[in-house]
Amino acid sequence: MSPEKKIIILKNRIRQNPGDYKSYAQIGDIYSQYGNFNGAIQAYLRAIKIKPKDEFNINRLGQALWKVKRYPEAFKQFKKALTINPKFAYAHLNISKAFALVNDKSNALAHARFAAKLFRKHGDIKGEAMAKQELSELYK
Predict the structure, then answer these.
(1) Which of 14, 58, 59, 116 minimizes the number of CB atoms within 10 Å of its CB?
(2) pLDDT at 65
(3) CB within 8 A of 42, min separation 6: which ones?
(4) Which 3-state string (H, E, C) describes 101-114?
(5) 52 to each of 57, 95, 128, 129, 130, how far by Cα in Å?
(6) H/E run at residue 33
(7) Residue 126: helix, strand or coil by DSSP?
(8) Helix (H) or strand (E) holding 67
(9) 51-70: average pLDDT
(10) pLDDT digit string (tens) for 75-121?
């Protein structure tokens, strides 16, 4: 099924249930996957408006903001996700990248190490590999 058709289906779900934050998040994911980061930002903002304490969508919003080089706003979203869930590994990994961008290597390393530990603890092999890659980049 094409992304356009998926979005139409999701928008129809939202029309039937305006509180369906998951459909907004899925639209954001589709937009992100195809490089429409401004569309993704809008979709994630709508999801967050419905469910404000969802660290997953807040982190996704941060990632979309990062892609359009809105770094300070992205960093703020990653920190917000960690305020909701201090053990959210993906937000730690994203904050590590943000600290690396401003040459704060000690904080970048600390967050990347913690992310790797959390991923390992939860058996997230893909996440752990990403954290190890980040650590490898930081050690260069």
Answers:
(1) 14
(2) 97
(3) 28
(4) HCCCHHHHHHHHHH
(5) 9, 20, 27, 30, 27
(6) helix 21-33
(7) helix
(8) helix 55-67
(9) 97
(10) 999 999 999 999 999 999 999 999 998 899 999 999 999 999 999 99
The pLDDT score that the predictor gives to residue 120 is: 96
DSSP structure string for 73-109: HHHHHHHHHHHH-TT-HHHHHHHHHHHHHTT-HHHHH
Confidence of residue 1 (pLDDT cuts 50, 70, 90): confident
Q: Quick check: helix, strand or coil at residue 133?
A: helix
Instruction: Collect contacts of 86-89 with beta carbons under 8 A, ≥24 apart.
Output: 87/118, 88/55, 88/59, 88/118, 89/114, 89/115, 89/118, 89/119, 89/122, 89/124, 89/127, 89/131
pTM: 0.91
Tell me which residue has tokens 């401003």: 102
